Amino acid sequence: xxxxxxxxxxxxxxxxxxxxxxxxxxxxxxxxxxxxxxxxxxxxxxxxxxxxxxxxxxxxxxxxxxxxxxxxxxxxxxxxxxxxxxxxxxxxxxxxxxxxxxxxxxxxxxxxxxxxxxxxxxxxxxxxxxxxxxxxxxxxxxxxxxxxxxxxxxxxxx
DNA sequence: GCCAACGTTGGC
DNA sequence: GCCAACGTTGGC
Length: 158
Known about the structure:
Elements: E1 5-10, H1 12-15, H2 17-22, E2 27-29, H3 36-45, E3 51-56, E4 63-76, E5 100-115, H4 116-120, E6 139-142, H5 144-153
Parallel strand pairs: 1-3
Antiparallel strand pairs: 1-6, 2-5, 3-4, 4-5
This protein binds a DNA duplex (12 and 12 nucleotides) through residues 9, 11, 34-37, 57-58, 60-62, 116, 133-136, 138.
């Protein structure tokens, strides 16, 4: 099995990489994804041991903050069944859950965070989805080369 | 806070 | 199954 690489977006005001580091076992469930494409990546393709670039969106400047690892493969997102949750989905049932999530664990904080500007100015990263205009997907695949390059620019080793 | 880009919903 | 209306994302 080949390890794959991903980028996941989170608003630091909601749940930052530092929050993840402080969390129990430095692990969290990635609840609240309500986009089919992002769900499919989590449900079908993310495997234990895959590595994740943890991206802070909706902040100034937006940036890659750290690296995390998938520690639990997809299972139903419990918030879809919770009527008090803003992620509640009345069309979802226990028998046929619509939304899935994975657990990720903090691995390393970026020694130098990589701003979106930096990413955009990096020719070798021009193909990264996150630098492309209008790209809203909150879970997206990253190539091994891109992942490696990001770590190098961020002076970060695992 | 604005708004462009995109995804989803629902009437027809 | 089309597409207008609406809601959300997320950079700026």
